[in-house]
Each structure stands twice: as structure tokens, then as C-alpha cells.
């Protein structure tokens, strides 16, 4: 039987020492690493050979991480983890708004980096073909093909937006706390980082307007997808 393909990670950072540090740890853990030092070159590599995941630094000279991420999201839903400066909450929130799936703050430990990468890849891995689609009102989510449609039109979601919507659709009527969503959807502990959930919920509502009525905020706790799907007024 042929050996399984190693998961490919594209590392985008303009600091050679940081790239070397990340490469050593990812390769030690069995990943294939592709590297580049600029956002422009990252887009070229993305078009040439799609990676399984991208590690993207924010501070780069020619094309910063935010603009690179915006351009990535125009052509791909590949999972993206942003590398941000320690304590820069605005950078983290901005990255999430633009479609990042996760972030790691510098400096970070090798164990944290590998844990984040593995958790995101595990949750975005293709599901087995034939898994029944989920439906809620006009929304149809097909885990097998990793697609979401609303009344026949396709919604372009990031990996984490897809997983959050899937989690909610599997639990209509249940009030879900932000900490629960962080632990179960993101697969990692985020002490105090509940804005991550809020940003993703806001993006879901923007991309799927139907959710502005169906996905309600439970004050000071979290969110709930109404047990009974509202009538579609569109």
C-alpha cells in the first residue's frame, strides 16, 4: 500500500531565522514545508500548488499579511493561521475579519505551533463521501464536498466559518457558550479570546443574511441557532 502523502504547509515570513525555526519543527513532526519571504511570492506558490495550510506573518515589507490574506481569500479557502505580534489584539481581530482561521502570537513555543496546526488540519480534513448533508431552512451544508448553499447559491466560507456553521446546524435550539464553541470548534484553549467567536459569527451573518434572523445572540453567554428555522422571506 502506498504511503500517505505528507501534509504540506506554506510558511510566509520575511525573517529567515523564523522560517528556519518553523521549518525545523514542522519537518520534525512529519510535515512537508514550502517557504517564501513575501506575500507576492506566496500567492504565486498558492496558484502553483495548493498547500494544506498556510502560516502567514503579519509584518512583511512588500505586501503585508493582511493584504496577502485578502488576496488569498479571493481565490482559495485554504486554512490560514496568522502569526501576530504579542499583545496586538487589533491585528488578531483584523486577521479574523479578513478570513483567517486561527492565529499564533509571537513568541510562541514549538509545541503550541504544532498543536494549532494539527488541530486546524484535523478539523478541516475532508469528511467521508456519502455523509448526509445538513439542512436548516434554505441552508444546505454538505460535509463530504465541504460546500454550503443557500437556495441553490453557493456561500464561500473559510474553513473555520464552515466548521462553526456545521457545529451550530448540528445543535439547533441549544444555547452554546463562547468558551464551548472555542473548545469544540477551534480545538484549543483560548483564555479570554471570545472575540474570535464573535468575529466569525458576524462574518457568517454577513455571508448568509438568513442567519441574521436564525442565529441569535444570548446576552453575556453565547449564541443559539433557533430550533425552528424561520420562514424564508427571500
Summarize the structure.
With 234 residues, the protein is an alpha/beta fold. It has helices at residues 16-28, 39-48, 65-75, 89-98, 110-124, 159-169, 178-186, 195-207, 211-214, and strands spanning 8-12, 32-36, 53-57, 80-85, 102-106, 134-136, 139-142, 147-150, 153-155, 176-177, 215-218, 222-225.
Plain-language structure description:
The protein folds into two domains: 8-124, Rossmann fold; 134-225, Winged helix-like DNA-binding domain superfamily/Winged helix DNA-binding domain (Arc Repressor Mutant, subunit A, Orthogonal Bundle), CATH 1.10.10.10. Helices cover 41% and strands 21% of the residues. It contains nine helices and twelve strands. It has helices at 16-28, 39-48, 65-75, 89-98, 110-124, 159-169, 178-186, 195-207, 211-214, and strands at residues 8-12, 32-36, 53-57, 80-85, 102-106, 134-136, 139-142, 147-150, 153-155, 176-177, 215-218, 222-225. The chain has a five-stranded parallel β-sheet with strand order 2-1-3-4-5, with helices on both faces. Strands 6-7-8-9 form a four-stranded antiparallel β-sheet, covered by helices on one side. β1, α1 and β2 (32-36) form a beta-alpha-beta unit. α2 packs parallel to α3 (65-75). The longest helix has 15 residues, at 110-124. It is globular, with a radius of gyration of 18 Å.
